[in-house]
Specification:
It is a single chain. The chain starts with 10 loop residues before the first helix and ends in a 6-residue tail after the last helix. The radius of gyration is 19 Å and the shape is elongated. It contains 7 helices and no strands.
Length: 163
C-alpha cells in the first residue's frame, strides 16, 4: 500500500513513543527537491529507510537532516577553496557572490514552490563578472551534492526489507 503524499509517520513508527509536537516549518528548513523525494516514498520504502537510519524521525525531520548534511558538505567545500578564490578573483568578487547567493536564497524562500529561480538567475548572469562565476560554481556544487543525497535516499529506500 502506498502512503499518501505528506504522510509523516506510520503507527508502527510511533508505537511505544510519547507523542511529539510536529516541528514548526520555521524550525526546519528543507530543500524542496529533497522534500519531494522523501514525501513520495511509499510506506514500505519509508519503513525500509527508517530501519536503516536510526532516529530518522518523521519525514520532515529526515528531510531537514538531509538538508543540513547537504549544506554542511557544501560549506566545507567552499571553505576549502575560498583561499584560492580570494587569491584569484579578490575579496570584492567573493563578497558580491555571497550577497547575490543570500538574496537569491531569500527570494526562493518567499516564492511559491514550483517557481523556477535557477533560470531567472542564469538569465541575469554576466560571463565577465567573477562574482557570477563564483555563484554558478557554488550552485552547481550544491546541486551535485543534492543529487548524490537523493540517489542515496532512493537506493536505501528501495532495498528489500530485511526478514
Amino acid at each position: 500500500m502506498q502512503s499518501q503524499r505528506g504522510s509523516n509517520v506510520t503507527r508502527e513508527e510511533t508505537a511505544g513513543k510519547p507523542p511529539q509536537d510536529p516541528p514548526s516549518p520555521q524550525k526546519l528548513s528543507c530543500f524542496q527537491d529533497v522534500l519531494d523525494i522523501i514525501f513520495s516514498l511509499t510506506d514500505r520504502e519509508w519503513r525500509t529507510l527508517s530501519e536503516d537510519v536510526p532516529h530518522a524521525g518523521t519525514k520532515l525531520q529526515f528531510a531537514s537532516l538531509c538538508t543540513k548534511i547537504i549544506l554542511s558538505v557544501s560549506r566545507s567545500a567552499v571553505q576549502s577553496y575560498l583561499p584560492t578564490l580570494l587569491h584569484v578573483v579578490g575579496m570584492e568578487a567573493v563578497l558580491m557572490a555571497e550577497e547575490k547567493l543570500r538574496k537569491k536564497a531569500e527570494r526562493a524562500s518567499i516564492k511559491p514552490s514550483g517557481s523556477n529561480t535557477v533560470e531567472e538567475s542564469s538569465d541575469k548572469r554576466s560571463p565577465k563578472d567573477p562574482s557570477d562565476l563564483i555563484c554558478h560554481i557554488i550552485e552547481d556544487y550544491v546541486s551535485e551534492v543534492k543529487t548524490a543525497m537523493e540517489e542515496s535516499i532512493c537506493k536505501v529506500a528501495s532495498c528489500e526489507e530485511s526478514s
